[in-house]
């Protein structure tokens, strides 16, 4: 069984497209940490994995200071390429529209498609799902992918699901699915 945890709230006053870029945590971090720790205390987490992103690593280490945190690149957020660190309002609307109309297969300029994220997530999940009760600290894109695959919803429905900061999704079965 793997539990996927989205990192806590970030500080993003400029409404930046950030994806894999490092972002500062919001002032609410400690309150969110306490809430997540309480939720996870009900589980018997044996192994902890994290995206290499600082916002995920800090959370993983703060939640489980006594455990080794295994960093895995497959848990990274979607790579938005040349859009990273640009305010959404400064990205050409026609470029966003092209990407949004087929984000499953279409990459932002210099970035990766959602299909690519799903493929690396499935790799990670298959490698670790039967080892022990694990926690994977990751990002909204990864949790949206898990949600779609778990509920056998088409990947094009990924943004129909609200994925709050600090949310947790547990999943035991395989995440194989036809990418549509």
What does this protein look like?
This protein is α/β, with parallel strands linked by helices and 180 residues long. The protein has one domain: 3-Layer(aba) Sandwich (Rossmann fold), CATH 3.40.50.1240. It has 5 helices and 7 strands; from the N terminus they run E-E-H-E-H-E-E-H-H-E-H-E. The strands form 2 sheets. It has a 5-stranded mixed sheet, with helices on both faces. The longest helix is centred in the last third of the chain and has 15 residues. The protein is globular, with a radius of gyration of 16 Å. The relative contact order is 0.24. The model has no long low-confidence stretch (mean pLDDT 93).
Query: Overall 3D geometry?
Result: globular
Mean pLDDT: 93
Largest beta sheet: strand ordering: 4-3-6-1-7
Largest sheet: 5 strands, mixed
Structural class: alpha/beta
CATH topology: Rossmann fold
Radius of gyration: 16 Å
Uncertain segments are none
**Main CATH class:** Alpha Beta
Keywords: Hydrolase
InterPro entries: His_Pase_superF_clade-1, His_PPase_superfam, Phosphoglycerate_Mutase
GO molecular function, one term: fructose-2,6-bisphosphate 2-phosphatase activity
Protein name: Alpha-ribazole phosphatase
Topology:
Layout: E1 2-6, E2 16-17, H1 29-40, E3 47-50, H2 54-63, E4 69-71, E5 86-87, H3 93-101, H4 114-128, E6 134-138, H5 140-150, E7 168-171
Parallel strand pairs: 1-6, 3-4, 3-6
Antiparallel strand pairs: 1-7, 2-5
């Amino acid at each position: 069984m793997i539990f996927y945890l989205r990192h806590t709230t970030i500080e993003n006053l400029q409404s930046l497209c950030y994806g894999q870029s490092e972002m500062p945590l919001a002032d609410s971090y400690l309150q969110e940490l306490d809430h997540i720790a309480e939720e996870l205390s009900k589980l018997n987490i044996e192994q902890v994995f994290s995206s290499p992103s600082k916002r995920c690593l800090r959370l993983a280490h703060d939640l489980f200071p006594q455990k080794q945190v295994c960093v895995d690149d497959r848990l990274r957020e979607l790579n938005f390429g040349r859009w990273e660190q640009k305010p959404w309002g400064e990205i050409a609307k026609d470029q966003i529209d092209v990407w949004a109309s087929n984000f499953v297969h279409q990459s932002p300029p210099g970035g990766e498609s959602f299909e690519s994220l799903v493929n690396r997530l499935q790799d990670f999940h298959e490698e670790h799902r039967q080892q022990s009760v694990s926690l994977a600290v990751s990002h909204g894109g990864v949790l949206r992918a898990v949600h779609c695959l778990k509920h056998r919803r088409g990947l094009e429905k990924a943004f129909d699901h609200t994925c709050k900061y600090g949310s947790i999704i547990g999943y035991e079965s395989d995440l194989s699915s036809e990418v549509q």
